[in-house]
Amino acid sequence: MDINAALAAQKYAASRPATAPDPTIEAAGAAASDFMSTLQRTEETAKAALTGGADTHTLVQAMAETKFAVDTAVTVRDRVVEAYQEILRMPV
């Protein structure tokens, strides 16, 4: 009986409280803000290139970063939709 109580106490202490933030949600929020900052930087670079404030190489590099960010976001979205559809197909 003592072993089970000690194991239960250890597991209880190691668990995260229900009020603690979920690290996966925080990571998703950080990824979304990083995505938005990439888009904003590219837009600023494009404006600067049109007014002569940035060279062509910088613009092409910013556009490539944006394409990579958009491709990544689309892939994540597709995986989330696919997982949701799998859940809907599960028998109840």
Automatic annotation (TrEMBL):
It is found in: Bacterial flagellum basal body. GO terms for molecular function: cytoskeletal motor activity; structural molecule activity. The keyword ATP-binding does not apply. InterPro entries: FliE. GO terms for biological process: bacterial-type flagellum-dependent cell motility. One of its GO terms (cellular component) is bacterial-type flagellum basal body. This is Flagellar hook-basal body complex protein FliE. The gene is fliE.
